[in-house]
Amino acid sequence: MAVVLPIPEYAENGGVNKIDPKELDAGTLFVLKSQGSWLHCGYHLTTAIVAPALLSLPFTFTLLGWIGGMICLSTAALITFYSYNLLSLVLEHHAMLGKRQLRFRDMAHDILGPGWGMYFVGPLQLGLCYGAVVASTLLGGQSLKFIYLLSRPNGGMQLYQFIIICGGLTLVMAQLPSFHSLRHINLVSLILCLVYCACTTAGSIHIGHSNKAPVKDYSITGVGINRIFGIFNAISIIATTYGNGIIPEIQATIAPPTTGKMLKGLLLCYSVVISTFFSVAISGYWAFGNQAQPSVLQNFMLDRMPLLPKWFLLITYIFTFVQVSAVSLTYLQPTNVVLEKRFSDPNKGEFSIRNVVPRLISRSLSVIIATTLAAMLPFFGDIMALFGAFGCIPLDFILPMVFYNVTFKPSRKSIIFWGNTIIALVSTVLSLIGAVASVRQMVLDAKTYRLFANM
Question: Which GO biological process annotations does it have (predicted)?
């Protein structure tokens, strides 16, 4: 699946992969340490992409059908792999010229101009990543609630209480100083996502073959305009599921020289992506048809009664909860970079009192705010569809094509130039329509919205 692209020749020099310390702030010095291997890179990539949000893929098939769902899922896989590889090539190019870019906003600043990094890409990435932290905290709370209901079907604890518990775990783990510090956690995350996806797939197949299975109806839900907007809403959800938004920050954790290492990490990541995304989507939609819920795990319980052995569901929910905590930590890193830059002193030691105290306070407040938002807005899934349209599609489907074309200037007669241009233009249209569809869905669901709802 490797994508091989022609790259213009450039001379290597003594500045390859070397960064002038004067250009670094405390955020890049302390958070984005370049000490990892390609394997570590693969762990980070997998955690950033293969998250419990993939459990919504059977639901997207209810809006797209078998053919539409498979086409969208496959196309998104190919384009995102290609896109992330393009970003990696651009980053390697600048590193070999002696200017290693460590953040997405650095790429936009150097390639498109200062305004793009400061006013568009930077805020867009931070909003998307922090939104992912909020969504992950909500998913973690929902997983804990499912575990609770397995033992006490009529229990009185509310969803927001479980969200607070999940946020407390994230608050403690968020004190790990650097992105590189997460490498072992993200290895565990990779293993866990394989396990809970295997459990989800096996559970769907078991229920689908049992007498408890719903009548299989694969007709597309919605009629008329509702069906059309549902299609674009599903595309936004799939884009969000494949979304990353932190490729430069992940590549920044690789020890120089970086050439070729990101591609190896992507190959490891996408071997997990293909095995998990397609197995969950196909088995979940096959078993439940157009009754698939926004999270297929919801289909495993009927009227608060489990359709599978409790121990099996317990394992699935626990692994989902633990893995989503790793996802939260991964997407906190761009925020941590900004906080370290603002409150830490690069001239002092990373573990000096001057830097440890501001780090503890700022990161704790960041997690507390995200946890509060997750508890207040348990309908955050609708908001994430909007983030997918406004955030994931621009960062993962549009900007990589633009960065490559501007950096390497391929011939206007070449397939690469026109392929990148067409992908960027189509993605722009889908982003705008998807945003409208997401806002419309939020308006339709507004009647059921209630702060701190026990969903």
Answer: amino acid transport
